């Protein structure tokens, strides 16, 4: 065994030969020097930034959970006798989500949103999905990004209610307003996820004997798919990755419309969902093989 190796066979580090009290622990470091004071300020700034990032991550999780609960509630419309009651309850839930988004806007006051975008993007995408799903149920159309952003202008006097007066990003000290803008990428990813919820809505409608909703959803999804096809691989990677899932949802909805149009008159309404489920499984197996 080499003389430089210890009993365990590991090479001893050079500074292990020095006594503990003679190591470079910093006896000669002047804590009041300009360099140390500068690094202490850097440390405080980084700690504050990391704490803010973690708070935004927690808020994003809350926004995601509440938005998903709103989507689950809206799916009950296909079987509920009173649609207006569910829409009213969903609006209350979305108001609660917007209160969380107000806290995000307050955290980002005076900050560059893009530095913290990774912390909040998941929640914003889920919120876009919930709002656009509710808007489609009401109007059978797609909500625009500008309409979503108009709902995200808050004032302290109104406890976060919508303010029609346009304002700049961040905090307006004169009027006490906050504003959070949904980015185009968040909007596109939220709309792409919306197509999956519309496919589930179509399945539920077929199971309940509703033969109008599947055709309305099919026409809407074709328009959305055409829009995403124009983006193609030129857009952000996350957006192009959603195109395959969108295509799957469109194929399943079109298959439901085919079953309704061709065989709807010969199959009882309570059996349409079973026929559609079998066709959907066949499509999934064929795509898995290919």
UniProtKB/TrEMBL annotation:
Give the start-end ranges of region Disordered: 1-32
**GO biological process, any:** siRNA processing
Keywords, A to Z? Cytoplasm, Developmental protein, Differentiation, DNA-binding, Golgi apparatus, Isopeptide bond, Magnesium, Metal-binding, Nucleus, Spermatogenesis, Ubl conjugation
Q: Which domain of life is it from?
A: Eukaryota
* Sequence positions that bind Mg(2+): 129, 197
Q: Where is the composition biased (Basic and acidic residues)?
A: 16-28
Q: Which GO terms describe its cellular component?
A: endoribonuclease complex; Golgi apparatus; nucleoplasm; perinuclear region of cytoplasm
Compartments in which it is found: Cytoplasm, Perinuclear region; Golgi apparatus; Nucleus
Report the GO molecular function annotations: metal ion binding; sequence-specific DNA binding
From the record heading this protein, give the residue positions of the covalent cross-link Glycyl lysine isopeptide (Lys-Gly) (interchain with G-Cter in SUMO2). Answer: 279
- The coiled-coil regions, if any, are none
Kindly give the InterPro entries that the UniProt entry links to this protein: Translin_C, Translin_fam, Translin_N, Translin_sf
PANTHER family tied to this protein: TRANSLIN AND TRANSLIN ASSOCIATED PROTEIN X (PTHR10741)
- Role of this protein: Acts in combination with TSN as an endonuclease involved in the activation of the RNA-induced silencing complex (RISC). Possible role in spermatogenesis.
Q: How does it assemble?
A: Ring-shaped heterooctamer of six TSN and two TSNAX subunits. Interacts with GOLGA3, TSNAXIP1, SUN1 and AKAP9. Interacts with the homodimeric form of C1D following gamma-radiation. Interacts with TSN and C1D in a mutually exclusive manner.
Its family?
Answer: Belongs to the translin family.
Name listed for the protein in its UniProt record: Translin-associated protein X
Recorded source organism is: Vulpes vulpes
Q: What is the lineage of its organism?
A: Eukaryota, Metazoa, Chordata, Craniata, Vertebrata
Q: Provide the gene name from the record.
A: TSNAX
């Amino acid at each position: 065994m080499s003389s430089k190796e210890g009993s365990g066979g590991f090479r001893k580090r050079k500074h292990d030969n020095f006594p503990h009290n003679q190591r470079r622990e910093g006896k000669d470091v002047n804590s009041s020097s300009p360099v140390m004071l500068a690094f202490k300020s850097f440390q405080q700034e980084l700690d504050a930034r990391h704490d803010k990032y973690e708070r935004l991550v927690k808020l994003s999780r809350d926004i995601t959970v509440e938005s998903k609960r709103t989507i689950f509630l809206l799916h009950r419309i296909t079987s509920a006798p009173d649609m207006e009651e569910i829409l009213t309850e969903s609006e209350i839930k979305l108001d609660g989500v917007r209160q969380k988004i107000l806290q995000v806007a307050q955290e980002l006051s005076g900050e560059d949103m893009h530095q913290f975008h990774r912390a909040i993007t998941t929640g914003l995408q889920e919120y876009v999905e919930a709002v656009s799903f509710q808007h489609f149920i009401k109007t059978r159309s797609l909500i625009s990004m500008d309409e979503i952003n108009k709902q995200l202008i808050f004032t302290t006097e109104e406890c976060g209610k919508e303010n029609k007066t346009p304002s700049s990003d961040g905090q307006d000290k004169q009027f006490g307003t906050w504003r959070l803008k949904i980015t185009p990428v968040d909007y596109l990813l939220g709309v792409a996820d919306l197509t999956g919820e519309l496919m589930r809505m179509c399945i539920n409608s077929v199971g309940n004997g509703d033969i109008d909703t599947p055709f309305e959803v099919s026409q809407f999804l074709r328009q959305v798919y055409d829009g995403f096809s124009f983006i193609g691989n030129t857009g952000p990677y996350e957006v192009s990755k959603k195109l395959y899932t969108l295509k799957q949802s469109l194929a399943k909805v079109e298959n439901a419309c085919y079953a309704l149009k061709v065989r709807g008159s010969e199959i009882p309404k309570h059996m349409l969902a079973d026929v559609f489920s079998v066709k959907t499984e066949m499509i999934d197996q064929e795509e898995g093989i290919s």
